[in-house]
Amino acid sequence: MKIKDVRPQPFVKQLRCDRCGRLAEDSESEFFEFTSIDYKAGYGSILGDENQIEIDLCQHCLKETLGPWLRVTEPAVPGTKILKALELFNTDRHGGEFPPPRGIPSEEDKS
Ligand SMILES: [Zn+2]
Question: pTM to 2 decimals?
Answer without folding.
Answer: 0.66
